[in-house]
């Protein structure tokens, strides 16, 4: 997609209102719409959010993220921002202010969460990206972003099964995953 095309899509996306019950994201110039999430998904987000200490961090749901030099405005399930850097208002939160993003994998978002968003968040230099996967019953913590554009990636990856605590060093929090549920009757995928 050319820069002109991407700018046109970005301008359209700013005015776009998805139909009721759908969520929309702009990912590398492509508008992606998803149905409302499953209860398993929402409870994982809730259990994660409640473990983030509000005296130091703000865990924000459905916050649009502005990724520098990307035709992307992802909407992570959770965005974790230090209290003292949060702006007073605005729809788009600059990725430079974000300490960690959290995506909970849904039945239809596996490739987006593990591949597309991985490189988008790394390109935005977001220090930590946590993928919580109720299909595979595990958490994948990615740190040490490097690179630009579609070649951006995280150099460090740590995987922990549900039920085991996961240390989130960037937040100084040990995440209890024992209450994370899984999707029944969903075929496993091949992502790491």
Structure write-up:
With 192 residues, the protein is an alpha+beta fold. 20% of the residues lie in helices and 33% in strands. It is built from 3 helices and 12 strands, in the order αββαβββββαβββββ. It has helices at 3-15, 39-49, 110-123; strands at 22-27, 30-35, 57-60, 64-66, 78-82, 92-94, 98-104, 128-133, 138-146, 153-161, 166-168, 173-175. It has a 6-stranded mixed beta sheet with strand order 3-5-7-8-9-10. Helix 3 links the parallel strand 7 and strand 8 (128-133). The longest helix is centred in the middle third of the chain and has 14 residues, at 110-123. The mean pLDDT is 90.
List the helices and strands and how they pair.
Layout: H1 3-15, E1 22-27, E2 30-35, H2 39-49, E3 57-60, E4 64-66, E5 78-82, E6 92-94, E7 98-104, H3 110-123, E8 128-133, E9 138-146, E10 153-161, E11 166-168, E12 173-175
Parallel strand pairs: 4-6, 7-8
Antiparallel strand pairs: 1-2, 3-5, 5-7, 8-9, 9-10, 11-12
């Amino acid at each position: 997609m050319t820069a002109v095309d991407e700018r046109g899509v970005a301008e359209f996306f700013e005015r776009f209102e998805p139909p009721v019950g759908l969520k929309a994201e702009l990912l590398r110039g492509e508008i992606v719409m998803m149905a409302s999430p499953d209860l398993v998904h929402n409870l994982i987000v809730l259990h994660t959010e409640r473990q983030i200490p509000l005296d130091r961090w703000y865990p924000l749901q459905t916050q649009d993220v502005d990724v520098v030099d990307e035709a992307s405005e992802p909407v992570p399930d959770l965005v974790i921002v230090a209290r003292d850097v949060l702006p007073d208002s605005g729809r788009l939160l600059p990725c430079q202010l974000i300490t960690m993003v959290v995506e909970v994998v849904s039945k239809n978002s596996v490739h987006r969460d593990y591949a597309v968003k991985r490189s988008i968040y790394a390109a935005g230099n977001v220090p930590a990206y946590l993928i919580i996967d109720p299909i595979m019953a595990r958490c994948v913590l990615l740190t040490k972003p490097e690179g630009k554009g579609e070649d951006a990636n995280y150099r460090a990856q740590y995987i922990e099964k549900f039920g085991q605590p996961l240390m989130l060093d960037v937040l100084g929090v040990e995440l209890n995953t024992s209450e994370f549920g899984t999707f029944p009757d969903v075929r496993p995928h091949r992502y790491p």
